Amino acid sequence: MGRLKAFLKRKDIEISAKRYGIDALGAMAQGLFCSLLIGTILDTLGKQFHIGFLTTTVAKVFGQDYTVGGLASAMSGPAMAIAIGYALKCPPLVLFSLVTVGFSANALGGAGGPLAVLFIAIIAAEFGKAVSKETKVDILVTPLVTIGIGIGLSALIAPALGSAAMSLGQVIMWATNLQPFLMGILVSVIVGIALTLPISSAAICAALGLTGLAGGAAVAGCSAQMIGFAVMSFRENRWGGLISQGIGTSMLQMGNIVKNPRIWIAPIVTSAITGPLATCVFHLQMNGPAVSSGMGTCGFVGQLGVYTGWVNEMAAGTRAAITPLDWAGLFLISFILPAILCPLINHFCRKMGWVKDGDMKLA
Q: Does the pTM of the predicted model rise above 0.85?
């Protein structure tokens, strides 16, 4: 056992919830952002502003036409796997081999590919790290082990993982359609909390394929956390804090939450209010990429995702136009209500002595 621990330490193989559930998951979301999400944004910009370069086919692969954005989106599997490998501190040969692993896991995982990529890339990366530089023919052994294990696992378990992820996501979306009030609260609160915790709400939404009304509730919850913390901590963090939290991440408050968990009351209660408003009143749906559901106001990706869904619906003929009520709902849920409700609720927390000046000061 001692030898095994020493070997794992030497190889920087750390079997822990933090390494896999926080570092790898968070990196996977960044890989998705730099491929699928950017590709979707480019396609949307091209269609809306009639930019020829972005709407013209730039490549044809096996009979499939690709735009610039389409090429970026097609690389989501490799991008996720490389990001995971980077988070796991893989040596170069392992990291580069994960391109193939990510492609195979994502392709065989189907609509639930992101979850398959997460599990399979982690396993392939750790085995690759274990054999890296252990032989004189490292340039052959390391890629063969990493790719071999990755493709083998993709064939064996990627379809099942993908199906399981999509089944769970479909159950959540079905339940949200059936009980929009209750599920609006639950999805909004849970995904919002995940966004502020050092895990990736975006990766969770992507892995589950969370769209539709459930995706709209997720956008509401994430926005409540980000805009809520940004506005209610304005007196302590001023404009820098407003921007870094409002269009960056509320995760910046995690250290302060550990010191005083009660500062989290206002954003959580706000998400419990805006979630059912999104599902029951405004019928806010995320019909863009599922990863956008867990992004909130980060770079306005959540809102762009909703808008992309509207555009796609109009192109498909299922939506006649984007109405003023659509825009009102999006802005109220994403920005206006969190900016009003969160400071108001926090005011009562201050009155009760639960929150004090300086509790939300960013370092």
A: no
